[in-house]
Amino acid sequence: MPHxxxxxxxxxxxPIDSLFQRLRAQKRKAFIPFxxxxxxxxxxxxxxxxxxxxxxxxxxxxxxxxxxxxxDGAVIQASYTRALxxxxxxxQILAMIRRLRQExxxxxxxxxxxxxxSYSLVHHRGPDTFLTQASEVGxxxxxxxxxxxxxxxxxxxxxxxxxxxxxxxxxxxxPRERATRIAKNSTGFLYCVSVVGITGERTNLPPxxxxxxxxxxxxxxxxLCVGFGVSKPEHVRMLKVxxxxxxxxSAIVRRLEQVGTKSTDAIVREIGEQVQSLSAALND
Length: 284
Hints:
- By secondary structure, this protein is of the alpha/beta class.
- The chain has a single domain, classed as Aldolase class I (TIM Barrel, Alpha-Beta Barrel).
- It is built from twelve helices and nine strands.
- It has helices at 15-26, 42-54, 74-85, 90-100, 119-125, 127-137, 153-161, 176-185, 208-217, 233-239, 250-256, 264-282; strands at residues 30-36, 60-63, 113-116, 141-143, 165-167, 169-170, 190-193, 224-227, 245-248.
């Protein structure tokens, strides 16, 4: 059976489910920016989260830096390296998320926060402990890109017990039988990788991506959100006919490489303008 967004009342519904229910009623799509925690520092990450929420972000992915990223391209990998070089710790990221969740628009879950985290970090802390801490600080879910669906059952059960969403990825090369299994096991939304390879900005998105999204739509009622390679308003316009949300990472994180040559405030403002233009293209 495909997933349904029905069930719990709005008061106790996970903020991700509430968000997509609200957007569907409004015939709008979710713009989802990715921010690396701690690049250039956690104070700036929190400022960026506030800015992008103000400029049209519907949900925000917070990347937990780790030393051996699986699918991240050079831009995001470099941002992880910069953050780790300053001695960033998971507890500091969780503390920042807790502080963010005490502020509008995060306090009431109107803009949910999701972690992008390597399973190695989850495993090292202990899956039960990690999910308890992530839920307590106010994360609504996590994307664990290096956890294959065949090995995800334990984490999925622990997450379900907390109504914590475990968002899984489908790629263009995922065989259809396996893609169906991933769609059935994912919660919150399905992360649809747009291109073969690693994250990063692309000139064009493959036209067959739309065919894959139409097919996935027949396999699940989960929202379909597309990431990897999405960086321009024209990409966003192409995707909005078939996707429920669009994820942009490298095109945003690249701006943070300029901290030092420009003021942090100027870069926060630039990223805000970038998010506003991409979000507007998605919902014009």
